[in-house]
Amino acid sequence: MTRSSLFAGVALAAGLFAATLASAAELTVGFSQIGSESGWRAAETTVSKMEAEKRGIDLKIADAQQKQENQIKAIRSFIAQGVDAIFLAPVVATGWDSVLEEAKDADIPVVLLDRTIDTKDESLYLTAVTSDTVYEGKVAGEWLAKTVGDKQCNIVELQGTVGSSPAINRKKGFDEAIAAHSNLKIIRSQTGDFTRTKGKEVMESFIKAEGGGKTICAVYAHNDDMQIGAIQAIKEAGLKPGTDILMVSIDAVPDIFKAMADGEANATVELTPNMAGPAFDAVMAYKKDGTVPPKWIQTESALYLPDTAKEEYERRKNLGY
């Protein structure tokens, strides 16, 4: 799938919305949400509620508290309730075939939000509404390579939840972007589980292992919340994040824009929290007349820098992050 699919997917979703609004009030959708491990995740939940309300859809949300077993229980509960569709933001990529087969047998379409799954049977889900997470990592890596130039740069990496598709893909994209630059080297890489608390803890260990942090040139974090935690750890170590150590991450939550405005972060790659809007439109069309959406509805990923940070912070801070 190329980035050009973004426009086709979004255009289709937008067109389907107007044609199917009348049937929305009849729909009940169950959403198995990972939890609230980050500001972005909380925003996704808030925006999903807003998008459902706009369409008159009854949205039932189950918070899995970042446990796959809770998501599987929620999906089975939604099947028992006879919902019209199920949204799934999978905490990890594997282990879904059995429960999704149960949804398929019940004739309940499943839409993946934000993350994908590893399966040999793509008929188990109707469509996936996600960004190109490999591309997100690549954008972050390309920015760092351009910013550093020929300077030797030791990078520490805060990875997302082990086994999750964003963690796998954001690492892959970043690694690909810096592969051609021998002066860029990842010297330490560890999961921070997409949370601020663990991001701070891991960054503290990196600083301790690297002579008080003086050998670290840059931090690449798979999401902004871990980066916010890393910023705190760097400041507590007596260093200046954004100046002594370059900071690049992914999600574009309000707090990272505040950090950029304060000179404590350098770049973020956006992950829109509105995955549910295109997903609702796809389900509505499918339920109305069997219209099958693209297998992947791709959302856009853009790079943001400090020059627009103050403006972006004000625009985003009330979106539920």
Describe the model.
It is a single chain. The longest helix is centred in the N-terminal third of the chain and has 17 residues, at 39-55. This protein starts with a helix and ends in a 5-residue tail after the last helix. The protein has helices spanning 5-20, 39-55, 68-81, 97-105, 133-148, 165-178, 196-209, 224-236, 254-261, 276-289, 309-316, and strands at residues 28-33, 58-63, 85-88, 110-113, 127-130, 153-159, 184-191, 218-221, 246-251, 267-270, 296-298, 303-304. A six-stranded parallel sheet has the order 2-1-3-4-5-11, with helices on both faces. A six-stranded mixed sheet has the order 7-6-8-9-10-12, with helices on both faces. The chain has 321 residues and is α/β, with parallel strands linked by helices. The relative contact order is 0.17. Strand 1 (28-33), helix 2 (39-55) and strand 2 form a beta-alpha-beta unit. The radius of gyration is 20 Å and the shape is elongated. The chain folds into two domains: 5-131 and 272-300, Response regulator (Rossmann fold, 3-Layer(aba) Sandwich), CATH 3.40.50.2300; 133-271, Response regulator (Rossmann fold). The chain is built from eleven helices and twelve strands.
